[in-house]
Amino acid sequence: MKLRLTTEEKSWAMYDWANSAYSIIITTAVFPLFYKAAATDAGISGADSTAYLGYTISIFTFILAMLGPILGTIADYKGMKKKFFTFFFILGAGSTAFLAFVPADNWLMLLIVYTFAALGSTGANVFYDSFLTDVSDSERMNRVSAFGYGIGYIGSCIPFILSIAIIMLAQFELIPLSMTNASRAAFLITAVWWIVFSIPMFRHVKQRFYIEPEAQPIVKSFRRLAGTFREIRKYRGLFLFLLAYFFYIDGVGTIISMSTAYGSDLGIGSTSLLLILFMTQVIAAPFSFLYGRLADRFGTKQLLYVGIAVYTVVCIYAYFMDSVLDFWVLAMLVGTSQGGIQALSRSYFGRLVPKENSNEFFGFYNIFGKFASIMGPLLVGVTAQMTGNTNAGVFSLIILFIIGGIVLYFVPDPSRYEPVPEN
Question: Per the database record, which ranges form the Major facilitator superfamily (MFS) profile domain (predicted)?
Fold first, then answer.
């Protein structure tokens, strides 16, 4: 059957369209190159600057991992989810715009502002993800979640093309902008795109499932948090999924957030890197839609296994990567699965959790995902510094996909799983 989206589902998915500009321009493409150039000018080696970026990602993900479950329990109260979403949205979009005004020779300040921008972006995504249970039902979640990722990749291409055009025109001195100011323009484009296309989310998406306000909400939220942790352990399928997710999503996130740094260390030029990343977005969009359709036909877990298998091949291939062509092949492989594996993980979890406590449970989803994101960049950073070889750091991520795949084997498929606590 053809999927007909409701106004709420469309508005929810549009935030993927809005925030995807941050994901490609700040997390993956322009900012890492901007930072790497600043670090190189300061006399820092490629391996060390890549390691510092990995450590920075570990720091902000640790902060958010600590805050996620606590804020999630409070956000389950009526009207609180949108307030928390708004706070992190403003922090992320504001810090992204501020990146344009940081001195290009201050690599440390760039990492600090990037930390706040990343906190805002990932923090808003925690509450955005949990809104999936408010806008859709279990039977539609695979398609709706995949649709969000799909249009996100399509939407990200527009500001990305505009940013690349400005940077390339500046590189060939066809416009009166330096390369530094061209990159700064990309940061401002990202912030404006993010803000404008988030408007439907603020207008039409509301918290349908909630807990009524009560006295001492913070104290009681901590009590509910402790109770949720005990309750999660009673949901065998839910707990096993979170454990599998902890490992495989770590590898996914690390490869996405540090891919540009890998290419830079291989000596691939900025123009080639930006073009490769653009094509990755183009490929990721249709494959995200495809993952959603195939999951409905063959099962969510089976398609998650496909994604894990692709990423395992990516890690092996990355070890031998030494040319622009190799990086092209690796990027195209990543593009086939990065949206699908994230979209299905989100819908898989959304179909397992009790809707009235979705923020609590998505808080744990967040803490598993974010704590995992500490381990991956640290693993890459330490391995890269010990070996002096970034490729070895990427290859080390293979263990995360193998462990995640093994644990996922024991997780029941959501279509046959009822979230009822076991005795």
Answer: 237-423
Place of tokens 């509910």: 224
Q: Tell me, what amino acid is at 17?
A: W
Residue 396 lies in a domain: yes
Is 230 within the bounds of a domain? Answer: yes
CB 284 within 8 A of CB 339: yes
Q: What is the pLDDT of residues 190-214, one digit of tens each?
A: 999 999 999 999 999 998 876 776 6
Residue 421 forms part of a structural domain: no
CATH number of residue 72's parent domain: 1.20.1250.20
Q: What is the mean pLDDT of the chain?
A: 82
How many domains does one find in the chain? 1
pTM: 0.76
pLDDT per residue over 223-276, tens digit each? 766 766 666 666 677 788 888 998 898 888 777 766 766 777 777 777 777 788
